Amino acid sequence: MTIIPDQPINFSSLHRLQWEEAQQKYVILYPEGMVELNQSSAEILKLCDSTRTLAQIVSELEQKFDTTGLTNDITAFLGVALQNDWINQH
Amino acid sequence: MTGLTNTNITPPRWLLAELTYACPLQCPYCSNPIDYANYQSELSTDDWKRVLTEARKMGAVQLGFSGGEPLTRQDLPELVKHARELGYYSNLITSGYGMTEEKILQLKEAGLDHIQVSIQASSQELNDHIAGTKSFEHKKTVAHLVKKHGYPMVLCVVIHRENIHQMPEILAMAEELGADYLELANTQYYGWAHANRDLLLPTKEQFEKAEVIAQAFKEKVAGKMKIYYVVPDFYEDRPKACMNGWGTTFLTIAPDGVALPCHSARDLPGLDCPNVNDYSISEIWHESKAFNFFRGFEWMKEPCHSCDEKEKDFGGCRCQAYLLTGDMYNTDPVCSKSPNHEVIQHAIDSAKASANLTGEEKPLIFRNSKNSRTLTKN
């Protein structure tokens, strides 16, 4: 499974992305489980809102953090997210 | 409160709210205590709301509404709504009995995140026998409705000697119902399951055969359905890391407000489990005798105390050590290093011998109030 470049990315309706005050981090919640996210993973997933494609997410984050060359890292992480069903493209 | 202070205490993450012991089903492996009929009082709606608020403030985020059958509580939608407002991820753990499409919609509206429906077997006859109630067709209808209304659908099947031969049919049923998650829970022998162990514990051959089938299915449905396989610890040689360590992650509140480090802990002697009517959740979690009892490693006896695996499995399950060896400080006898490990083989042999008896010689004891009172009479 790989990300289709020209299709927008949705966050899964069967999972919930949420800021946890007590843990001071974002988490993904799903039946009987929780994944704790580091800051960069959370920043990427927050942009998976059914309106943005991979390229748009990359350019937005490069702009936000005033950097370049994020394509490979973001693509790799979204591949993992896709495999875990946190995101989808249908 | 004993005034203990321990600065290394992690906050609770999982809250199990056992709303009631009332249940229309009579499953003979129920994890409720044998003497549940002695605990008639139930927390009020306001008490539960306070418990939810206090635990959330400490960091609890996964919430299970359980029982008994939680649908028997008329205030369930109100509690779900309160939980959603607090930011919990809430799970309804139900038999499906008493569920209607109207209620599913009402709970969705209130903010319920997912519904776990239990099914006892893949055939109506066996399901209704084990549940002690005619319920099979309705459970399947409920599973369809759960899917229809966009919840993640979790199907839970408790596995034991009466249904383990149906593993292929159980898997096919889960696929047909469109389960997103399938929990194959090998019976854990506490409470009613402990009382019925001779009749429920499968042989090693049965376990291994069923496990091979389940593993092959897991690979086949990867990407479509997730399988949670709860291992049968009697056939392992190391114990489970029970509750992820005592008082580290899990908080159970029983129907009458007693706070438990695990849902079987009220059977352990001398713990003096505190009640939410008397103390705040924070006091209970940090300061109570019960929650500090088996925290850390100081309480351990040998062979656990000097074992290099103690940080991995915490010595196993305290309730199992107590039930099977009579001493809750002992190493969980599932561990092959335990000096009491032979009790596991005795249990397996005893169950195997019972397999040849007829139901009239040794009937299953179903979980109901009458049997609860009979079994707890001295």
From TrEMBL, chain A:
It comes from the Bacteria. Gene3D superfamilies: Coenzyme PQQ synthesis protein D (PqqD) (1.10.10.1150). One of its GO terms (biological process) is pyrroloquinoline quinone biosynthetic process. Pathway: Cofactor biosynthesis; pyrroloquinoline quinone biosynthesis. Keywords: PQQ biosynthesis. It holds the Pfam family PqqD. GO terms for molecular function: quinone binding. Coiled coil: none annotated. Monomer. Interacts with PqqE. This is Coenzyme PQQ synthesis protein D. It comes from Crenothrix polyspora.
TrEMBL record, chain B:
It catalyses: [PQQ precursor protein] + S-adenosyl-L-methionine = E-Y cross-linked-[PQQ precursor protein] + 5'-deoxyadenosine + L-methionine + H(+). [4Fe-4S] cluster binds at C23, C27, C30. Its EC number is 1.21.98.4. CDD domains: Radical_SAM, SPASM_PqqE. Its cofactor is [4Fe-4S] cluster. Gene3D superfamilies: Aldolase class I. Pathway: Cofactor biosynthesis; pyrroloquinoline quinone biosynthesis. The keyword Manganese does not apply. Coiled coil: none annotated. One of its GO terms (molecular function) is cyclase activity. SMART domains: Elp3 (SM00729). GO terms for biological process: molybdopterin cofactor biosynthetic process; pyrroloquinoline quinone biosynthetic process. Binds 1 [4Fe-4S] cluster. The cluster is coordinated with 3 cysteines and an exchangeable S-adenosyl-L-methionine. Keywords: 4Fe-4S, Iron, Iron-sulfur, Metal-binding, Oxidoreductase, PQQ biosynthesis, S-adenosyl-L-methionine. Residues 9-224 form the Radical SAM core domain. Interacts with PqqD. The interaction is necessary for activity of PqqE. Belongs to the radical SAM superfamily. PqqE family. Catalyzes the cross-linking of a glutamate residue and a tyrosine residue in the PqqA protein as part of the biosynthesis of pyrroloquinoline quinone (PQQ). HAMAP family: PqqE (MF_00660). This is PqqA peptide cyclase. It comes from Crenothrix polyspora. The lineage of its organism: Bacteria, Pseudomonadati, Pseudomonadota, Gammaproteobacteria, Methylococcales. The gene is pqqE.
